[in-house]
Amino acid sequence: MSTVMSTSCQPVLTLLESISGPGDLKRLSNQQLAKLAEEIRQAIVQSVAKTGGHLASNLGIVEITLALHRVFDSPQDKLIWDVGHQAYVHKMLTGRRDNFSTLRQYKGLSGFINPFESEHDSFLAGHSSTSISLAAGMAIARDHKGENHKVVAVIGDGGLTGGMALEAINHLGHIQKDVIIILNDNEMSISENVGGFSQYMKRIKETFFYQDIKAKIDQIEGQLDQKLGPGVWQLISAVKEQAKQRFDTPGIVFEKLGINYTGPIDGHDVGAMIDVLSKIKDQHAPQILHVITQKGKGYAPAEEDAIKYHGVSAFSLEKIEPLVAPKPKAKTYSDVFTETLVELAAIAPEVVALTPATAEGSGLVKFGKAYPDRFFDVGICEQHAVTMAAGMAKEGLTPVVSIYSTFLQRAIDQVIHDVAILNLPVIFGIDRGGLVEDGETHQGVFDIAFLRNLPNFTVVAPKDAQELRNILYTAVKERKGPLAVRFPRDKAVDAESFAPFELIDYTKWEMLHNGAFNCKIDSKANNVVLLAYGAMVEAAKQARIILQEKGIEITLINARSAKPLDSEMLGKLIADPSLTLVTLEEGCVSGGFGSAVLEFAAQSKMTRPTCGQSSIYCLGVNDQFVEHGARQILLDLNGLSPQKIAEFVACCRK
Amino acid sequence: MSTVMSTSCQPVLTLLESISGPGDLKRLSNQQLAKLAEEIRQAIVQSVAKTGGHLASNLGIVEITLALHRVFDSPQDKLIWDVGHQAYVHKMLTGRRDNFSTLRQYKGLSGFINPFESEHDSFLAGHSSTSISLAAGMAIARDHKGENHKVVAVIGDGGLTGGMALEAINHLGHIQKDVIIILNDNEMSISENVGGFSQYMKRIKETFFYQDIKAKIDQIEGQLDQKLGPGVWQLISAVKEQAKQRFDTPGIVFEKLGINYTGPIDGHDVGAMIDVLSKIKDQHAPQILHVITQKGKGYAPAEEDAIKYHGVSAFSLEKIEPLVAPKPKAKTYSDVFTETLVELAAIAPEVVALTPATAEGSGLVKFGKAYPDRFFDVGICEQHAVTMAAGMAKEGLTPVVSIYSTFLQRAIDQVIHDVAILNLPVIFGIDRGGLVEDGETHQGVFDIAFLRNLPNFTVVAPKDAQELRNILYTAVKERKGPLAVRFPRDKAVDAESFAPFELIDYTKWEMLHNGAFNCKIDSKANNVVLLAYGAMVEAAKQARIILQEKGIEITLINARSAKPLDSEMLGKLIADPSLTLVTLEEGCVSGGFGSAVLEFAAQSKMTRPTCGQSSIYCLGVNDQFVEHGARQILLDLNGLSPQKIAEFVACCRK
After folding, report:
1. Of the N and C termini of chain A, which has fewer Cβ atoms inside 10 Å?
2. In whole angstroms, what is the distance from residue A49 CA to residue B106 CA?
3. How much is the ipTM here?
4. Reduced to 3 states, what is the DSSP secondary structure of residue A530?
């Protein structure tokens, strides 16, 4: 392979351009691979600067990825990337380099791995800690079919705190299948890492704990009388050997669980990586290779603040600042949520906050700074977080669990078994409730439907920032039982300034605009009532303006409680056969808020079968997994943009 | 305390009778405690022989419980029993001895711990692996409130395989809260235990791994020349000390994770237990005490077959046989499920079976015996089981996950993220779908509502054994995508003999009895259509007989698919305003099958707003957690017995 020299002042990414698939790596020398690594870093920084994306983790994993594709043969060998947002390098090496400008755009490259995108993506992953279970399953399938390729899971030290990864290690140690685990240890998940395991691995790196024992034995040897018999020397040598075998392994915990341990090795030394991988490739038992890397490697700003550069919006390479002209940043719902918690903590000493490794994304870092003793980032452990909160609530605290809708799916049993049955006052702040740009794995569309089925639960969503604040204030004051309050990944409505906290009955709905209901306008044009849940209130308001321009007046209700429903208001609406009710929610239509309204109507009819009823239509997210792309595009695709809502209303009037 | 001698030939349980609360234990000598232990064993065997219940685990934990209540002060100190079915002794010692004859009966003592029952039950537990998270939460609350009681979690080695227990250990090692973990190691969860952890603990017991190194150093010392300088001796001594500190601990894995380890000790030596507990009570860091016990201890039949005696029905003490006269045992749905899988495995080599530690309860043990290489009991690891199955399916196998409805709650995210998004052909055999006698923690009432929300999923329930067989056969043959097939914990309908396997379209409903629909009988009495899901078909059949006796004819449909609905048949039903549809499901009404029918109707109306529609009523499990008691009682309480269904139909006819 020839190296074409650059003729312009712009460096030409010659090596990278020559790679059309992982097979092309086999021809490169270690030196060329090191150069390629630099080119890849440049390409990633330039690309992510334009599109936004996960920067630091991908800069850290360049050499690991090169070494894996050099030693293994994808797609015959299965490379499984935990979480999948660390796979940009892998994508570049497997034919997707030219599409990188479309990363995370609608219909563009996914920000995660996805088999629909490439045969080199052996599975799909957006959530953490799944790779070892997948590898175990794939290895069993391989052996069952009598094939002999390799299965390699690449997992971060953050992912290893997830219970299912530990379940998988435990099981893999038992079944002894031929699986290679690459532990990419950068001492950091999204947030700073927590847990005994993480501290243990830190100690591995700081001191190889056999070292000083060995040094002391050597000292003894040095001082021993040379006249001692050969038996003694044999014994000393035996002790040393035994000590070495048993203790000269920093990975004793893994070894004890039945996983062969190698490491730690420098994950930025591509030659060393290739050597070690080539050796362990020939073994046929579970292996873990502990690799030390630096997040953000090679890009100074990201090296210095890897958390900031975990996931970024587009930024300027020169100024290391966002491309868009700086203006006062609009507060997100996450911001309002955290700020409110900080205020509440001051007046309610029993309030504590928990997060499963999403302290940055949820803004909860601020709470941790203000109240370090009342803040618990448990790592990627949704199950533990929820049940620990239950234990806290049982003993009189008011735990607030900040959790993304999509990650709450990891702890549904704990929500039911440990929180709901005992009716404990745990507050769930459900962040990213609704559609997000990340795609299928991250859509927060199931929480309303899941939670409203649970006895004892109250399931609400505020229309704006002030309401979010009052809901939290009321819940903290009243400590009534489990409460889920959801909000979208979006800027908060009306978050410029706040009225003082106020106790509100958040299980009651709010009439925002009375177009037809309870008033005397008797016109065919006036009989649509929008029941908007949470963020949909804002969309509905805009839809109302569009409809007004067409001369259509509607009624708009802030239906902020999905469980319980406001039976008084809904009862009146249902009983009026001249009305058409349209429920709006940013969640799956199946089993969601609208479905609850239908159930209520059926129940009403059961008690008053001869009465007329209003018509009810339910709008929400369709019965399919929603791809990645800008939130507004995704909302529109699901009929939830103001335009689409207005169109529907215009059509559905009786 | 005086010991009254028995005057009859029946032994009088004198010591036990003198215990009205745990405080009474403080006065007993170790010898008396040992005698009390024997009395408790007798009482448990006699009681469980009458009522059924968990026998082996409770016999194994007698001395641990005595020692805990002797050393700690419940309820000030918090004792948290993992799973909670090992708490019979605890119940006997905390004022509930006299009610033991009501164990697991409706309105009687719960089979699990439950704070509603006693202040000594510091939490509720029916599912495994929650106790360490709860203990961490309670310890944080204690410290936050400036209290100084002790928090003790008692967990089995089986419970420790659960990911959330490992998450909790990892986190506890990090936060270093004062929590004592009693690891009750009987080398067995419900099924035989699996996992690297379990094997590791086995090795702890077999050899204390520091022993032979130490022996060799001693040997060296013996042979060393006495003339060596004091420096050498100091060094040798230092090496020994260091080796001791670092390696003379069988619990090195726990120590490395930041949990102080003590053990292993004999869990049937109550004196030793008290000594050790008294010592570690005074420490203020996370502790684990590793206690070795024997399941079934003291009752020979249970010692010999602890799995058989894990949970038992009433049995005769003399014959060690069931009290009821032996008759050919009716096959359960679990039996039919497993037998079918064994048959299918013979004709479909890609079929493999997985279970998260419920091989006995689900009957899957039989599959494991027939196909040991295609059977995977992963331990109490629902998350890992589901994602491992996803990995298998991706690589061409057809994994069948046998899982209880209530435990599936532990793996909802894996079902969504790893199975549903990629539309993988994983078959979920959802056992115990519906109401069970165990109570709140074990009710299988959420699965229909959870699963029918998921894109790509097919959610079905057979009316009888033959249909279950054909569904499985078809799914294995077609490998279409994720399928959940649910059945109750009950004897199977029509399981005496089977027709050959047949491919069926299980997404189509089946008209079982056409009373009104599509026929010319035009009578007000004839317009009710029962849409019965799964086990409710049998109840509906019986309801129909009751109604016939009253002269009421109804239409009965086997609505075996909750997702997709049979749009063709349902479309016709909905369009007929003379019909009243009643959906029947053994699951929560909120968001369930009936709710899906309501959504379909609303959708139909959307496309044909001017047409009339049938009325729809939904029957299912009410919006509250269902207590323990016989299944028939619980069904009746929720309006799902044949009598209650018939009553409802008689009332709701238009």
Report:
1. N
2. 64
3. 0.89
4. strand
- B370 or A3, which is more confident: B370
- pLDDT, greater one: B224 or A66: A66
A296: distance to nearest CA of chain B, Å?
Answer: 26
Q: Any bridge partners for residue A263, and if so which? A: none
Q: Looking at the structure, do residues B227 and B283 belong to the same domain, yes or no?
A: no
**A223 in a domain, yes or no?**
no
Which two structure tokens, joined as six digits, stand for A467?
Answer: 């309401």
Asked whether the beta carbons of B36 and B97 are under 8 A apart, the reply is: no
Is residue B546 located within the same domain as residue B438? no
Is position A403 within any domain?
Answer: yes
The rounded Cα A262 to chain-centroid distance in angstroms is: 29
Q: Which residues from chain B sit within 8 angstroms of residue A412, using beta carbons?
A: 409-410, 412-413, 450
Give the minimum alpha-carbon distance from A226 to chain B in angstroms, rounded to a whole number.
Answer: 10
For residues A80 and A191, state if they share a domain: yes
B-chain residues near A387 (CB < 8 A): 130, 133-134, 137, 164, 168
pLDDT tens-place string over residues A420-435: 999 999 999 999 999 9
Q: B65 and B124, same structural domain?
A: yes
| Buried-exposed string B556-580: b where 16+ CB fall within 10 A, e elsewhere | bbbbbbbbbbbeebbeebbebeebb
Query: Which among B126, B253, B452 has CB closest to A591?
Result: B452
Considering the domain boundaries, does residue B201 fall inside one?
yes
Q: Do B239 and A256 touch (CB under 8 A)?
A: no
B550 and B612 co-located in one domain? yes
Domain that holds residue A350: 333-486
| Cα of A609 to nearest chain B Cα, Å | 8
Q: Of the residues A382, A437, A553, A585, which is catalytic?
A: A382
CA distances for A330 relative to A333, A430, B117, angstroms = 10, 20, 51
- Both tokens of residue A282? 């020939």
Whether B189 has a pLDDT exceeding 50, the answer reads no
Q: Do A598 and B595 touch (CB under 8 A)?
A: yes
Q: Is residue A111 part of a domain?
A: yes
Per-residue pLDDT tens digits for A255-290: 878 899 898 899 999 999 999 999 999 999 999 999
- pLDDT for B522 equals 44
What are the catalytic residues of B? 295, 382, 410
- Say whether both B54 and B100 belong to one domain: yes
**Are residues A536 and A645 part of one domain?**
yes
Closest alpha carbon within chain A to B414: A410
pLDDT band at residue A312 under the 50/70/90 scheme: confident
Q: Which of B395, B451, B654 to mutate against chain A (most A CBs within 10 Å)?
A: B395
